[in-house]
Every structure is written in structure tokens, then in C-alpha cells.
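Journal club prep — side note

Before the paper discussion, L.F. wants everyone to see what a predicted structure for a comparable chain looks like in C-alpha cell form. Sequence:
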Amino acid sequence: MTILCVASFEKGHAFLRSAKALGWRVLLLTSKSLEGAPWPREAIDETFYIPDKDKEWRREDVILGVSYLARRHRLDRIVALDDYDVETAAALREHLRVPGMGDTTARYFRDKLAMRLRAKEAGIPVPEFVPVIHYPDLEEYMARVPGPWLLKPRFEASALGIRKVHRPEELWPALDQLGDKQSFYVFERFVPGEVFHVDSLVNDRAVIFAVACRYGAPPMQVAHGGGIFSSRVLEYDSDDARKLLHANACVLSAMGHVRGASHTEFIRSDDGTFHFLETSARVGGANIAELVETASNVNLWAEWARVEILGEDYRLPEVRRDYAGLLVSLARQEWPDQSVFADPEVVMRIPKRYHVALIWRSPSADRVVELQRQYIERVQRDFHASAPLPAKATE
């Protein structure tokens, strides 16, 4: 049996190793610019490269290339390892008639407008929104829904490309700048509040594992205003955790997720309502997979491969119910000395140029919260780079 893994970014090492350990032939399709990346080559039978000089793959070229290699490889599964590869993998499955998520379902996990419409149809609370298509609809929306609002790219990941709009007269120049690309955006009400994420494994349309976490500062605030990225696992039996797990199951059912991993985000408004923000058919980035594994003993990448391959025969490993926290920050120092974070709860110091990145674990949720507070203060004082770093610093 052969699995083709599509990855325009270097990630998913544990997925590749897990698929290989199950006895499958593992093929990797990735960008030519990643030819020298430290892929786990012992777990990959063959690697195929797509030219990416324009930073984007041409869909037709990918379909032609994969169809050519399918002449000598029977492709039993095709998996997208990154958010940007979900549509490419779906198009390949449709073209080659390989089982798995097709074009229509993939749209719900990539297109912020499609997922909002689907959630609204299912009765899931979402911030009020309008497509950036018919101008009279935009005018009526801004007259009815008080600002500020967010102008969001429909197909970007995380907080990339989001623009905050405070007054109606700010929107039209922004749309003029976008030109013919403006229909690729959605316009929605800005809901202030705390942001949460739920990371899941799905098998046969059922959520078989999920962990609810709360971000420190909202990711959009960190991405656009600087700051320190952090997250922590919520108390398992808390009211917030129960509500989030229920909401997450409703979202994934509405979107039609059949099998694999997912990262879903919610925001809690002032009245306590959890509003759906976005979902995905992949493992969360920014070391969230390591956070989940530290708390639960479940490696989302490895178990996703097992779910994909074993199907109804899959069984979860033993799940631990510890608590864990995560912090990632740009640093002024090229290689900051992270050994100063010497508490016994620290289980991971992730080395990366111009970054501080820590993960800690405790059986006590209160201890994780206290360490999060301490570490944010210390990183802010001793390491954090408040001004943008040179481009080479973040390569």
C-alpha cells in the first residue's frame, strides 16, 4: 500500500515515520526549495519536487506530475500535511479517484466564507459576516452591524492578511487596493474576547480525541501588534472545556470531516458565548502539537497517520490528563540562553534562532497558569524583541 504526502512546507515528520512503521510505502511531494530540508529520509521511499520559484504551485502541473507517477505507483491514500495543501490533495483525489476528502468538503476547511456559511446553517454561533461581493450588501451590513470589522482573506491560514476596519469610509480604499482580488475576502464583525483552540483526531466522522486550550494574547494581536504567543490546556472538567469540546464536535460534523486531524478556533464574547472562528483539516502549527502531546501523550501527527491507514481498526494510545503550557517569542539574542528556565516542570526548550520557545507540564492546572504568568514576564523583560527583526533573523 502506498501513501502520497503533499507538503509545501517542511512538517509532519512523525506522520511520515508512523506511516512507514505501519509498513506502507511513503512518497513525499514537496517544494524544490525544500530539497535540502532535514526530512526523515529513512521513512520516505521516494521524494518528488515541484518547482516553486513563484512561491505557489500550479495546480495543473501538480495533477499532471502526480498522474505521471501514478503510472508506476498505485496511490492508495493522498494526504495534505499543511493547510495550503488541502485543496491540492483534494483535487488529486478527485482526479485520480483516490478515497478521502474531495473538493467540496475541502472548501469547508480552507475557505473562511464557506465554513462560516456552513456553520451558520448548522446553528453554530459565528461573528456576523458578509461576502465581499455585492457592494449594496456591504453597505447594508455596515449600517446594521456596528464596527469595528475585520477584512479577512478567505484562503489564508492563521491571522495572515487580516485588516481591521473602524469606519465605513476605510473599507472602500482597502477594497480598491485589493482590486480584482477583493472577492477572495470576507468581512465580519470584530468580536473582542479570549481566543481558544481545540485540537482533534477524527475517525469515521466521530471525534475520538480532543483537547481544549486557551491562547494567552489572541493570535491576531500577536501577529499584528507584536507580543508573546502562548497557550495552555484548560482544566479538563471545566465548563469552558465541556462547551468547547461540544462546539468543536458540532463544527466538524457540520463541515463533514470524516478522518484525520483538525485544529479549530473559537472566541468567547462578553456574554460568554463561544463563536466559531475557523477550522482546518490538519495539525495546528506553532508547536501546538508538542503542547498537546506533552499534556496527553498523544502525538497528533503520528496518530493521524495511524487513523488514516488503520481506519476502523485504529485504537488510541493511553491518554494522559496532565496540564501543559506553551510560549513562543521573538528574541533579541540570536541564540537565547533558555537554560535559565530551570523549573522542573519545563520539559522542552525548542532551539530556534532569535526565538525563545518553551513547553512545561504539571498535574496541576494552577501551576501551569502560574508558570505561564512568570515566563511571559521574564521573556518580556529579558528576551522579547519588540521591534521587527532583520529578515535574516526569522529565516
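L.F.'s comment for the group: Residues 387-395 have pLDDT under 50 and may be disordered. Keep this in mind when we get to the figures.
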